[in-house]
Amino acid sequence: MKRDDEPLAAARPGERLRGFGVHLLTASGGAVAILALFAAVEQRWPVMFLWLGAALAIDALDGPLARRWRVAAALPRWSGETLDLIVDFLTYVFVPAYAIAAAGVLPAALAAPGAVAIVVSGALYFADRRMKTHDNYFRGFPALWNVVAFYLLLLAPAPAVAAATVAILVALTFAPVPFIHPFRVRRLRFATLALLVAWAALAFVAVLDGLVADAWTKAGLCLIGAYFLAAGILRRPRGGGELPDA
Questions:
Q1: 76-108 pLDDT, tens digit each
Q2: Hey, where are the domains in the chain?
Q3: CB < 8 Å & 24+ apart, contacts of 142-148
Q4: What global pTM score does this model have?
């Protein structure tokens, strides 16, 4: 069986065109990122999260298409993996870091340092060749700062609590703690995907409500978030120890 990145003997023009269309889809996440940043600069947080949600949808779609159509083999000139990492850094790390700093959720003196810590740790994580384990769990906090920004703006904790949360997650970026990948981890996949859909629906409702959600919506989002944290942490071998190499 051929690998997805093994060059095709002679990719047809239609295959190359289709492959380039997938790359354009991935690159469109960069356009979404700049639109999200424009909204963040104007402090239109619900609009920003709608754009970041669109980026999540693109990220969920382009990978399966690229593997199904063997884009890496049809168009070896362009690295879909590199393109995906660039766009993900913008939408998962850079724009959310700005939002966390600008939204006033952190103490004023820690806003800029917090954003710097997020961006630096996120860049290092995206360059880590061992970011995943052999069974497709993330090793360390997977730089989901878009999700962190959403919870911080939705729940509006005390600035000291928000700062502690950011500090802990930055530290966990480099810790051997597993976090579940909702699509690639096989264990409890059906439950994970069902809860992911429920989370997306509740988050969409919260964004449409201007991030002023009712108690039930917040409780649902927090409980589902707790599941995703537990699903990774409970994977850890009993007695501790390092996670297996990817």
A1: 888 889 999 999 999 999 999 999 999 999 999
A2: 13-233
A3: 142/179, 142/181, 143/92, 143/93, 143/173, 144/92, 145/92, 145/93, 145/96, 145/97, 145/100, 145/118, 146/52, 146/55, 146/56, 146/91, 146/92, 146/95, 146/96, 147/225, 148/96, 148/100
A4: 0.89
